[in-house]
Amino acid sequence: MVCDGHVGRAAGSARIASDPPRRPMPSPTSTSPDGFDYESALEACARGERYALRALYERESRWLLGVAQRIVRDRDTAHDVLQEAFLQVWQRASTYQRALGSGRGWIYTVVRHRALDEARRVQREMPAGDDLEAVADAHAALEPAPDLPHADAAALDRCLSALEERKRDCIVRAFVEGYTHEQIAREIATPVGTVKSWIRRGLLSLKECLS
């Protein structure tokens, strides 16, 4: 089990260890509407405090299972992917840096990349619409109380197509491919501030289009 430093691939769905919390979560910040602090939880994981991983899993596993299942197209495989991704979260928590983005977004990226790796391993073809769903998933990861209304792939396709090409390209790079603002800026030879502005304005346009 993840909290004990290993993942079982036995039949059915492996579960995170249900140890009782060792101490209260760190003081809440504005990370989520109810005050849960994803960043402090990841830092607690980096210190080896298993209760923090359990808290993250209990809050996020249901939603992240859906993210993984949309990519691998199989619920049992998605369960395995989720367990392996949370093992990676546990092992790599020390690499998380607040300055580079939200804790929730970092966890989402770990799960999504693990699912994509599994999909590539079995050479599963993914419909184009999956990338569009990923934009909505990624926005939800970065915003615990997302402003984008729920939308299906067809609506996202229509609204993304209506965006200026440079804004659409930056959004897909950031939310689908997992690039940082700095990486996008280097790739397209554009100042970081401009990239951030294009992404912000693009998301506002998507919100208006999907409303």
Features:
Arc Repressor Mutant, subunit A; globular; 211 residues; 2 domains; mainly alpha; 0% strand; single chain; Rna Polymerase Sigma Factor, Chain: A
Describe the structure.
The chain is mainly α. The protein has two domains: 1-126, RNA polymerase sigma factor, region 2, helix turn helix motif (Rna Polymerase Sigma Factor, Chain: A); 147-211, Orthogonal Bundle (Arc Repressor Mutant, subunit A), CATH 1.10.10.10. It contains nine helices and no strands. It has helices spanning 38-46, 50-72, 75-92, 103-121, 129-142, 153-162, 165-175, 181-188, 192-210. Helix 1 (38-46) packs across helix 2 and helix 3 crosses helix 4. The protein starts with 37 loop residues before the first helix and ends with a helix. 35% of the residues are buried. Mean pLDDT is 74; it is low at 3-31, 125-129 and 142-151.
Give the topology, please.
Blueprint: H1 38-46, H2 50-72, H3 75-92, H4 103-121, H5 129-142, H6 153-162, H7 165-175, H8 181-188, H9 192-210
Helix pairs in contact: 1-2, 2-3, 2-4, 3-4, 4-5, 5-6, 6-9, 7-9, 8-9
